[in-house]
Write a structure and sequence with these properties.
38% of the residues lie in helices and 18% in strands. The chain is an alpha/beta fold. The strands form two sheets. Strands 1-4-5-8-9-10-11-12 form an eight-stranded parallel β-barrel, surrounded by eight helices. A two-stranded antiparallel ribbon has the order 6-7. The protein is globular and about 70 Å long. It binds ligand PBG.
Length: 321
C-alpha cells in the first residue's frame, strides 16, 4: 500500500495542517430580536439562550458580542399587535422604536455592521411578507411598501438591507430607490433562495409574526426545487444584489454549493431558528453533545460554500474561540 490516507490523520498537528475549512468569528452575522421599551429582556421559549432585548439592553448585548469578535448583527423588531395594520405602515415611520433604535446602535457602534430585514410580516396584521388582498399576496403593490421600508432603514445609517420577502423584482426596485436617495453605499443581501420551511417556527414565535391565514408557499420556494434557485440567483445578480443568501442552511447545503459554484458574488447562508432549536433541544435532553453538534453543523455550512453565516450560535461560537 503506497497510499495510506490515515497518515494525514495521525496527530492533532497534522490534522490541523491539512484542515480545509476553518470557522472564524469574522464569518458570522448574529440575528438579534428588539423589544419596545426599556430594561426588558424576555427569553424566546423555543430557543434556549436567545433573548429579546429592549434597545438599552440590546446595546449591551452588541457590546459584549463585539468583545468576542462578533461584529455583524441582523436586527429584527418584535412589534406589538396594536402597531400592526394591513399596509405595515409602522415599518417606515421614522418615529417607530425599531428605526430609532437602529440609529442609536449605529451611533454607539459605528464600526459594527448592522443589517436589517425587509419584509412586511412583523408589521402586518395578516402576518404575511406582502400585501394581502382576498387571500392573495400582491407582488407589485408590495414593492412600493418594501421600498419605503428599505429607504427608512437606510436613512438610519445601517449597512446592509436584507430583503427576505421573496417578491419578484424587489432587489432592483430597492436598489434604484436607494441610489436615487443617495444611499449608493448601502448593500443588499438578498434572500435569494428562501424556501417555505418548517424550520422558521421558533422565529415566528419570537416575533409573533406567523401568518394569520394560509402559508407562504406562493412566494417562498418549494423545498423540492434546485433549479429554481438558479433562476432566482440570475435575477438577483442582474438586479444588483451584493450577496446571495440561501435559507435555511442545513437542509439546503446542496443549494449553497450550487450557488457557490455558479456565481461570483459572496454567498450567505441563514442557519435558521429551527436549526438552532433542534440542537439545543437534543443537547438539553442529553441526547447529543450540543457544542460539538453546533461546531460540526456550522463547519458544514462553510464547507458547502458559505462566506457568511447568519446564526443564533454566533455568540456561543465567539465565546469558544
Ligand atoms: C421574515 C423572516 C423570517 C425569517 C427571517 N425573516 C420568517 C419567515 O419567512 O416566515 C426566519 C428566520 C429564522 O427562522 O431564524 N420574512
Amino acid at each position: 500500500m503506497f497510499k495510506r490516507p490515515r497518515r494525514n490523520r495521525k496527530s492533532q498537528v497534522i490534522r490541523s495542517m491539512v484542515e480545509e475549512t476553518r470557522l472564524s468569528t469574522k464569518d458570522f452575522i448574529f440575528p438579534l430580536f428588539l423589544l419596545e421599551g426599556k430594561k426588558k429582556k424576555a427569553a424566546v421559549k423555543a430557543m434556549p439562550g436567545i433573548y429579546r432585548y429592549s434597545t438599552d439592553l440590546l446595546l449591551k448585548e452588541i457590546e459584549s458580542c463585539m468583545n468576542l469578535g462578533i461584529n455583524a448583527f441582523d436586527i429584527f423588531p418584535v412589534v406589538d399587535e396594536k402597531h400592526k395594520d394591513k399596509e405595515a405602515t409602522k415599518s417606515y415611520d421614522p418615529n417607530f422604536f425599531y428605526l430609532k433604535a437602529l440609529k442609536k446602535i449605529k451611533k454607539e457602534f459605528p464600526e459594527a455592521c448592522i443589517m436589517t430585514d425587509v419584509a412586511m410580516d412583523p408589521y402586518s396584521i395578516d402576518g404575511h411578507d406582502g400585501l394581502v388582498q382576498d387571500g392573495k399576496i400582491l407582488n407589485d403593490e408590495t414593492l412600493e411598501i418594501l421600498g419605503e421600508m428599505a429607504l427608512a432603514q437606510a436613512d438610519t445609517g445601517i449597512d446592509i438591507i436584507g430583503p427576505s420577502d421573496m417578491m419578484d423584482g424587489r432587489v432592483e426596485f430597492i436598489r434604484e430607490l436607494l441610489d436615487e436617495e443617495g444611499h449608493q453605499d448601502v448593500s443588499i443581501m438578498s434572500y435569494t433562495a428562501k424556501y417555505a420551511s418548517a424550520f422558521y417556527g421558533p422565529f415566528r414565535d419570537a416575533l409573533d409574526s406567523a401568518p394569520k391565514a394560509g402559508d407562504k408557499k406562493t412566494y417562498q420556494m418549494n423545498p423540492a426545487n434546485q433549479r429554481e434557485a438558479i433562476i432566482e440567483a440570475d435575477l438577483d445578480e442582474e438586479e444588483g444584489a451584493d450577496f446571495l443568501m440561501v435559507k435555511p442552511a442545513l437542509a439546503y447545503l446542496d443549494i449553497i454549493k450550487l450557488l457557490k459554484d455558479n456565481y461570483d458574488l459572496p454567498i450567505a447562508a441563514y442557519n435558521v431558528s429551527g436549526e438552532y432549536s433542534m440542537i439545543k433541544a437534543a443537547a438539553e435532553k442529553g441526547w447529543l453533545d450540543g457544542e460539538s453538534a453546533m461546531l460540526e453543523s456550522l463547519l458544514s455550512i462553510k464547507r458547502a460554500g458559505a462566506n457568511v453565516i447568519l446564526s443564533y450560535f454566533a455568540k456561543e461560537f465567539g465565546e469558544l474561540s
